[in-house]
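Entry for the shared binder. Reason: the reviewer on the internal report wants the predicted structure included alongside the sequence.
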Amino acid sequence: MAGLIPWRRRAAAVVAIAAALASALVVFAAPKPAQAAQLTQISNFGDNPGNLGMYVYVPDNVAPNPAVVVGIHWCNGSASEAFGWKYDELAEQYGYIVVYPNVTRDYKCFDVSSPASLNGTGSDSVSIKSMVDYVLANYGADRNRVFATGFSSGAMMTNVLLGVYPEVFKAGSAYAGVPFTCFATDNGSMWNSECSEGRIDRTPQQWGDAVRNANPGYNGPWPRMQLWHGTEDDALFYPNFREEIDQWTNVNGTDQTPDSTEYPEANWTRTRYGGTGGQPLVEANSLSGVNHYPPIRETETLRFFGLA
């Protein structure tokens, strides 16, 4: 299939991405404040065709009927490294539960390309859905407040989860990702260079149809989406940001003209679609001069989810 690269080149690309992330991981690994609650592994959580590991953080101050935030790691990352984000610390303040999926295969990226994962019949999307079902059943969590967020491979999986399971995920926050189905392959490869290099250009209607066609008979509401992307991204190129905006605005029934444009910082442009408040249908955050590792702004993501 055009645009795919062989395994060795694909593996080299992943290694290069991992090297580029090294400095960012210092931030992720910052020391944690003292808390009694711990990151806990859950075994036998349900159907797990992707053979993923599941880790959960239940705060000391868990709220009644807590919300659920799924925090999804990057290629060559892990649940324990994603735990370096501040979602656990903020959970102590806001009372939600955090789920951290963990890739266990040698190719440590989430499956955002296979037909099974993209149609919810197998692989990683089904495994993560099982994790959410487990938390809903065993922790009394609120099924109307389930959210996903991730970086890089985790951002791509965030798009997949919202695309496959709009009845489960109410909103997502994707840091340096690509649209749902952009990375699709049909030959067993997990890498699509045509997508990663931003060479797939579809209309908003076509992108929206990809989500709607994955959910025949679903009548909404569709998930809201928050997007983050650096203009100098050299792994998942910046044009993917525009394609994500096109997809999720179309899915949510709004046009591609921003209802508001703000500049929270010198290099940060925030546009909102389908609303101008803190929880619009789509929020897009463009970071000028930033490459593949935009800063993870946990409180901004929780604000968009309506949890902070």
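Summary line for the report: The chain has a mean pLDDT of 91.
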